[in-house]
Design a protein that fits this description.
Layout (H helix, E strand, L loop, with lengths): L1 H9 L10 E2 L10 H9 L11 H14 L3 E5 L2 H12 L4 E6 L3 H4 L4 H4 L4 E5 L9 H7 L9 E8 L9 H13 L3 E6 L2 H8 L3 H4 L5 E5 L10 E5 L1 H13 L8 H13 L4 H16 L4 E3 L8 E6 L4 H10 L2 E2 L7 E4 L6 H16 L2
Parallel strand pairs: 1-11, 3-4, 3-5, 5-6, 6-7
Antiparallel strand pairs: 2-8, 7-8, 9-10, 10-12
Helix pairs in contact: 2-12, 3-12, 4-11, 7-8, 13-15
Protein backbone atom coordinates (compact mmCIF):
# COMPACT_ATOMS: atom_id res chain seq x y z
CA UNK A 1 0.00 0.00 0.00
CA UNK A 2 2.67 2.49 1.04
CA UNK A 3 5.03 1.44 -1.76
CA UNK A 4 2.21 1.98 -4.23
CA UNK A 5 1.68 5.50 -2.94
CA UNK A 6 5.36 6.29 -3.41
CA UNK A 7 5.32 4.69 -6.85
CA UNK A 8 2.59 7.16 -7.76
CA UNK A 9 4.88 10.00 -6.71
CA UNK A 10 7.89 8.68 -8.66
CA UNK A 11 5.81 8.08 -11.75
CA UNK A 12 4.59 11.68 -11.68
CA UNK A 13 7.74 12.78 -13.52
CA UNK A 14 9.32 11.43 -16.67
CA UNK A 15 12.45 10.40 -14.79
CA UNK A 16 12.40 9.62 -11.06
CA UNK A 17 16.01 10.81 -10.69
CA UNK A 18 14.97 14.28 -11.83
CA UNK A 19 12.43 14.64 -9.05
CA UNK A 20 12.99 17.52 -6.65
CA UNK A 21 13.62 16.23 -3.14
CA UNK A 22 12.68 18.85 -0.58
CA UNK A 23 13.95 17.99 2.90
CA UNK A 24 13.23 21.34 4.59
CA UNK A 25 9.92 20.37 6.17
CA UNK A 26 6.92 18.06 5.92
CA UNK A 27 4.86 21.15 5.04
CA UNK A 28 6.08 20.97 1.43
CA UNK A 29 4.08 17.87 0.49
CA UNK A 30 1.88 17.91 -2.59
CA UNK A 31 -1.68 16.51 -2.57
CA UNK A 32 -1.92 13.01 -4.02
CA UNK A 33 -4.24 12.38 -6.96
CA UNK A 34 -6.68 10.62 -4.65
CA UNK A 35 -6.69 13.64 -2.33
CA UNK A 36 -7.31 15.99 -5.25
CA UNK A 37 -10.25 13.85 -6.34
CA UNK A 38 -11.70 14.01 -2.83
CA UNK A 39 -11.34 17.78 -2.85
CA UNK A 40 -13.06 18.05 -6.22
CA UNK A 41 -16.02 15.97 -5.00
CA UNK A 42 -16.42 17.76 -1.66
CA UNK A 43 -19.89 18.83 -0.58
CA UNK A 44 -19.63 22.48 0.47
CA UNK A 45 -21.62 25.27 2.09
CA UNK A 46 -20.93 28.48 4.01
CA UNK A 47 -18.80 27.50 6.99
CA UNK A 48 -19.33 30.82 8.84
CA UNK A 49 -23.04 29.92 8.89
CA UNK A 50 -22.13 26.39 9.97
CA UNK A 51 -23.48 25.02 6.70
CA UNK A 52 -20.43 23.34 5.20
CA UNK A 53 -21.07 19.62 5.56
CA UNK A 54 -17.48 18.59 4.86
CA UNK A 55 -16.03 21.02 7.40
CA UNK A 56 -18.48 19.78 10.02
CA UNK A 57 -17.54 16.18 9.24
CA UNK A 58 -13.85 16.99 9.67
CA UNK A 59 -14.45 18.78 12.97
CA UNK A 60 -16.53 15.92 14.30
CA UNK A 61 -13.94 13.37 13.21
CA UNK A 62 -11.06 15.18 14.92
CA UNK A 63 -13.05 15.80 18.09
CA UNK A 64 -13.79 12.08 18.30
CA UNK A 65 -10.19 11.21 17.45
CA UNK A 66 -8.97 13.34 20.35
CA UNK A 67 -11.74 12.35 22.73
CA UNK A 68 -12.94 15.96 23.01
CA UNK A 69 -16.41 17.48 22.88
CA UNK A 70 -16.01 19.74 19.87
CA UNK A 71 -13.55 21.12 17.32
CA UNK A 72 -13.07 24.02 14.91
CA UNK A 73 -11.27 23.96 11.55
CA UNK A 74 -8.79 26.80 10.98
CA UNK A 75 -6.34 27.86 8.32
CA UNK A 76 -3.05 26.98 10.03
CA UNK A 77 -1.34 25.56 13.09
CA UNK A 78 -0.25 29.05 14.08
CA UNK A 79 -3.84 30.27 14.02
CA UNK A 80 -4.98 27.18 15.92
CA UNK A 81 -2.46 27.76 18.71
CA UNK A 82 -3.25 31.48 18.78
CA UNK A 83 -6.95 30.76 19.18
CA UNK A 84 -6.11 28.19 21.83
CA UNK A 85 -4.16 30.60 23.99
CA UNK A 86 -6.47 33.58 23.48
CA UNK A 87 -9.54 31.48 24.29
CA UNK A 88 -7.95 30.34 27.54
CA UNK A 89 -6.37 33.64 28.65
CA UNK A 90 -7.41 37.26 28.99
CA UNK A 91 -5.21 40.33 28.52
CA UNK A 92 -2.65 40.64 31.32
CA UNK A 93 -2.76 36.93 32.10
CA UNK A 94 0.03 34.46 31.40
CA UNK A 95 0.85 31.05 30.01
CA UNK A 96 3.83 28.81 30.80
CA UNK A 97 5.66 27.12 27.91
CA UNK A 98 8.86 25.32 26.96
CA UNK A 99 11.53 27.59 25.55
CA UNK A 100 11.91 25.59 22.30
CA UNK A 101 8.21 25.16 21.59
CA UNK A 102 6.73 26.49 18.37
CA UNK A 103 4.17 28.79 20.02
CA UNK A 104 7.01 30.66 21.73
CA UNK A 105 9.73 30.53 19.07
CA UNK A 106 8.05 30.46 15.66
CA UNK A 107 4.66 32.16 15.75
CA UNK A 108 5.77 35.81 15.97
CA UNK A 109 4.57 35.77 19.58
CA UNK A 110 1.09 36.64 18.34
CA UNK A 111 -0.35 35.64 21.70
CA UNK A 112 1.32 38.70 23.23
CA UNK A 113 1.13 41.04 20.24
CA UNK A 114 -2.52 40.40 19.41
CA UNK A 115 -3.88 39.12 22.71
CA UNK A 116 -1.88 40.93 25.36
CA UNK A 117 -1.13 37.59 27.01
CA UNK A 118 2.24 37.27 28.75
CA UNK A 119 4.48 34.31 27.98
CA UNK A 120 6.75 32.64 30.53
CA UNK A 121 9.29 30.34 28.80
CA UNK A 122 10.89 27.53 30.78
CA UNK A 123 14.09 25.65 29.92
CA UNK A 124 13.43 22.30 28.28
CA UNK A 125 15.67 19.26 28.62
CA UNK A 126 17.59 17.57 25.79
CA UNK A 127 14.47 15.72 24.68
CA UNK A 128 12.26 18.80 24.64
CA UNK A 129 10.53 18.00 27.92
CA UNK A 130 9.66 20.00 31.01
CA UNK A 131 9.62 18.99 34.67
CA UNK A 132 6.54 19.34 36.91
CA UNK A 133 8.70 21.21 39.44
CA UNK A 134 9.35 23.88 36.80
CA UNK A 135 5.63 24.33 36.26
CA UNK A 136 4.96 24.59 39.97
CA UNK A 137 7.76 27.16 40.37
CA UNK A 138 6.58 29.14 37.33
CA UNK A 139 3.04 29.71 38.59
CA UNK A 140 2.84 33.27 39.90
CA UNK A 141 1.52 34.21 43.34
CA UNK A 142 -1.72 36.12 43.76
CA UNK A 143 0.05 39.45 43.77
CA UNK A 144 -0.71 42.65 41.80
CA UNK A 145 2.95 42.77 40.71
CA UNK A 146 2.57 39.54 38.70
CA UNK A 147 0.41 38.36 35.81
CA UNK A 148 -2.20 35.71 36.56
CA UNK A 149 -0.97 32.32 35.38
CA UNK A 150 -3.81 30.61 33.50
CA UNK A 151 -2.37 28.07 31.10
CA UNK A 152 0.38 25.53 30.46
CA UNK A 153 1.36 25.01 26.80
CA UNK A 154 2.97 21.71 25.85
CA UNK A 155 4.09 20.21 22.54
CA UNK A 156 4.26 16.69 21.10
CA UNK A 157 6.31 15.87 19.10
CA UNK A 158 9.13 18.32 19.85
CA UNK A 159 11.57 18.55 16.93
CA UNK A 160 10.44 15.08 15.98
CA UNK A 161 10.90 13.60 19.44
CA UNK A 162 7.92 11.88 21.07
CA UNK A 163 7.35 13.15 24.59
CA UNK A 164 7.19 10.75 27.51
CA UNK A 165 3.54 10.04 28.31
CA UNK A 166 4.04 9.72 32.06
CA UNK A 167 5.81 13.09 32.05
CA UNK A 168 3.00 14.75 30.11
CA UNK A 169 0.42 13.45 32.54
CA UNK A 170 2.48 14.58 35.53
CA UNK A 171 2.82 18.05 34.00
CA UNK A 172 -0.93 18.22 33.35
CA UNK A 173 -1.71 17.02 36.87
CA UNK A 174 0.53 19.73 38.34
CA UNK A 175 -1.11 22.39 36.19
CA UNK A 176 -4.65 21.24 36.93
CA UNK A 177 -3.96 21.07 40.67
CA UNK A 178 -3.07 24.77 40.51
CA UNK A 179 -6.19 25.68 38.53
CA UNK A 180 -4.44 25.97 35.16
CA UNK A 181 -5.71 24.60 31.86
CA UNK A 182 -3.40 22.69 29.50
CA UNK A 183 -3.07 23.25 25.74
CA UNK A 184 -1.09 20.95 23.46
CA UNK A 185 0.51 21.98 20.19
CA UNK A 186 0.03 18.58 18.59
CA UNK A 187 1.03 19.65 15.10
CA UNK A 188 2.71 16.26 14.58
CA UNK A 189 0.74 14.34 17.18
CA UNK A 190 -0.13 11.60 14.69
CA UNK A 191 3.58 10.88 14.30
CA UNK A 192 3.61 10.20 18.04
CA UNK A 193 0.51 8.00 17.65
CA UNK A 194 2.22 5.89 15.01
CA UNK A 195 5.52 5.76 16.88
CA UNK A 196 4.01 4.70 20.21
CA UNK A 197 1.17 2.57 18.88
CA UNK A 198 -1.15 4.38 21.30
CA UNK A 199 -4.38 6.07 20.17
CA UNK A 200 -4.55 9.84 20.19
CA UNK A 201 -7.21 9.74 22.90
CA UNK A 202 -4.70 8.13 25.24
CA UNK A 203 -1.91 10.57 24.40
CA UNK A 204 -4.13 13.61 25.09
CA UNK A 205 -6.40 12.28 27.83
CA UNK A 206 -4.91 14.69 30.38
CA UNK A 207 -4.88 17.63 27.94
CA UNK A 208 -7.74 20.14 27.79
CA UNK A 209 -7.28 21.50 24.25
CA UNK A 210 -5.33 20.16 21.28
CA UNK A 211 -4.14 21.66 18.00
CA UNK A 212 -3.68 19.07 15.22
CA UNK A 213 -2.03 20.10 11.96
CA UNK A 214 -3.23 18.45 8.75
CA UNK A 215 -0.67 20.02 6.39
CA UNK A 216 2.52 18.48 7.78
CA UNK A 217 3.13 14.74 7.80
CA UNK A 218 -0.52 14.01 7.00
CA UNK A 219 -0.01 15.68 3.64
CA UNK A 220 -3.07 17.94 3.32
CA UNK A 221 -2.39 21.25 1.54
CA UNK A 222 -3.76 23.49 4.31
CA UNK A 223 -5.44 23.54 7.70
CA UNK A 224 -5.41 22.59 11.37
CA UNK A 225 -8.13 21.58 13.80
CA UNK A 226 -8.46 22.84 17.37
CA UNK A 227 -10.42 20.56 19.72
CA UNK A 228 -11.60 20.85 23.31
CA UNK A 229 -14.71 21.48 25.45
CA UNK A 230 -17.82 22.87 23.73
CA UNK A 231 -17.75 26.23 25.52
CA UNK A 232 -14.06 26.65 24.71
CA UNK A 233 -14.61 25.89 21.01
CA UNK A 234 -17.49 28.38 20.95
CA UNK A 235 -15.08 31.08 22.17
CA UNK A 236 -12.42 29.95 19.72
CA UNK A 237 -14.88 30.14 16.82
CA UNK A 238 -15.77 33.72 17.77
CA UNK A 239 -12.06 34.52 18.06
CA UNK A 240 -11.42 32.96 14.65
CA UNK A 241 -13.95 35.35 13.13
CA UNK A 242 -12.39 38.30 14.94
CA UNK A 243 -8.98 37.42 13.51
CA UNK A 244 -10.32 37.22 9.97
CA UNK A 245 -10.22 33.45 9.89
CA UNK A 246 -13.85 32.81 9.01
CA UNK A 247 -14.02 30.68 5.86
CA UNK A 248 -16.83 30.16 3.40
CA UNK A 249 -16.94 27.09 1.10
CA UNK A 250 -14.02 25.57 2.98
CA UNK A 251 -15.16 22.00 2.42
CA UNK A 252 -12.90 21.89 -0.62
CA UNK A 253 -9.84 22.01 1.63
CA UNK A 254 -11.45 20.22 4.57
CA UNK A 255 -11.96 17.24 2.28
CA UNK A 256 -8.19 16.97 1.96
CA UNK A 257 -7.93 16.78 5.75
CA UNK A 258 -10.55 14.04 5.91
CA UNK A 259 -8.73 12.09 3.22
CA UNK A 260 -5.44 12.52 5.07
CA UNK A 261 -6.89 11.20 8.33
CA UNK A 262 -8.45 8.24 6.52
CA UNK A 263 -5.44 7.30 4.37
CA UNK A 264 -2.20 8.94 5.52
CA UNK A 265 -1.85 8.16 9.22
CA UNK A 266 -0.49 4.62 9.16
CA UNK A 267 1.89 5.47 6.34
CA UNK A 268 3.73 7.92 8.65
CA UNK A 269 5.67 4.82 9.73
CA UNK A 270 7.32 4.89 6.32
CA UNK A 271 8.61 8.42 6.97
CA UNK A 272 10.05 7.24 10.28
CA UNK A 273 11.85 4.35 8.59
CA UNK A 274 13.22 6.67 5.89
CA UNK A 275 14.44 9.17 8.48
CA UNK A 276 16.26 6.46 10.42
CA UNK A 277 17.86 4.99 7.30
CA UNK A 278 18.89 8.42 6.07
CA UNK A 279 20.36 9.32 9.47
CA UNK A 280 22.36 6.11 9.72
CA UNK A 281 23.66 6.49 6.18
CA UNK A 282 24.69 10.11 6.74
CA UNK A 283 26.31 9.27 10.08
CA UNK A 284 28.61 6.84 8.24
CA UNK A 285 30.01 9.64 6.04
CA UNK A 286 33.25 11.13 7.46
CA UNK A 287 33.04 14.88 8.06
CA UNK A 288 29.35 14.94 8.92
CA UNK A 289 27.89 14.64 12.42
CA UNK A 290 24.45 13.15 12.99
CA UNK A 291 22.96 12.59 16.44
CA UNK A 292 21.20 9.27 15.98
CA UNK A 293 19.65 9.50 19.44
CA UNK A 294 17.53 12.43 18.21
CA UNK A 295 15.91 10.42 15.41
CA UNK A 296 12.55 9.39 16.83
CA UNK A 297 10.04 10.00 14.05
CA UNK A 298 10.50 11.84 10.75
CA UNK A 299 13.23 14.34 11.66
CA UNK A 300 17.00 14.22 11.91
CA UNK A 301 19.58 16.90 12.51
CA UNK A 302 22.92 17.04 10.73
CA UNK A 303 25.89 19.16 11.72
CA UNK A 304 28.37 19.81 8.89
CA UNK A 305 31.53 21.76 9.55
CA UNK A 306 30.62 25.49 9.41
CA UNK A 307 32.59 26.07 6.21
CA UNK A 308 30.85 23.12 4.55
CA UNK A 309 27.26 24.24 5.05
CA UNK A 310 26.83 26.59 2.09
CA UNK A 311 28.89 24.48 -0.35
CA UNK A 312 26.96 21.36 0.68
CA UNK A 313 23.61 23.07 0.16
CA UNK A 314 24.75 24.33 -3.25
CA UNK A 315 26.05 20.89 -4.22
CA UNK A 316 22.75 19.27 -3.31
CA UNK A 317 20.69 22.01 -4.96
CA UNK A 318 22.44 21.32 -8.25
CA UNK A 319 21.18 17.75 -7.93
CA UNK A 320 17.61 18.73 -7.09
CA UNK A 321 17.91 18.23 -3.34
CA UNK A 322 16.80 21.09 -1.07
CA UNK A 323 18.16 21.62 2.45
CA UNK A 324 17.17 24.39 4.85
CA UNK A 325 19.58 27.20 5.67
CA UNK A 326 19.69 26.50 9.40
CA UNK A 327 23.00 26.46 11.25
CA UNK A 328 24.96 25.07 13.00
CA UNK A 329 22.53 22.14 12.85
CA UNK A 330 20.37 21.54 9.79
CA UNK A 331 16.97 19.93 10.22
CA UNK A 332 16.18 17.24 7.67
CA UNK A 333 12.58 16.05 7.39
CA UNK A 334 11.16 13.02 5.60
CA UNK A 335 7.56 13.04 4.45
CA UNK A 336 4.95 11.83 1.99
CA UNK A 337 6.96 13.03 -1.02
CA UNK A 338 10.28 11.43 0.02
CA UNK A 339 10.63 7.86 -1.21
CA UNK A 340 13.09 5.12 -0.37
CA UNK A 341 14.76 5.82 -3.72
CA UNK A 342 15.04 9.50 -2.77
CA UNK A 343 16.91 8.52 0.41
CA UNK A 344 19.40 6.63 -1.76
CA UNK A 345 19.83 9.69 -3.99
CA UNK A 346 20.48 11.94 -1.01
CA UNK A 347 23.03 9.57 0.48
CA UNK A 348 24.80 9.26 -2.86
CA UNK A 349 24.90 13.04 -3.36
CA UNK A 350 26.18 13.80 0.15
CA UNK A 351 28.85 11.09 -0.11
CA UNK A 352 29.92 12.56 -3.45
CA UNK A 353 30.30 15.98 -1.83
CA UNK A 354 32.53 14.71 0.96
CA UNK A 355 34.67 12.60 -1.36
CA UNK A 356 35.60 15.85 -3.08
CA UNK A 357 36.56 17.73 0.10
Amino acid sequence: MYAGMNAEKVASTANGRNRRIDLRSDTVTQPTEAMREAMARAEVGDDVYGEDYTVRALEEKVAALMGKEAAVYVSSGTQSNLLGVLSHCQRGEEYLIGDVYHVFKSEALGTSVLGGVACYPMKTDAGGGLDPAQVKAGIKPDDPHSPITRLLCLENTVSGRVQDQDRIEALAETAHAAGLMVHLDGARLMNAVVKTGKPATELVRSIDTVSLCLSKGLGAPVGSVLSGPKDFIKRARRMRKMLGGGMRQAGVIAAAGLHALDHHVERLAEDHVNARRLAEGLAAIPGLTVDLDDVDTNMLFIRPQPDDIDPLRAHLAERGIVLSGQRPKIRVVTHLDVTEQDVDRVLEAVAEFYRGR
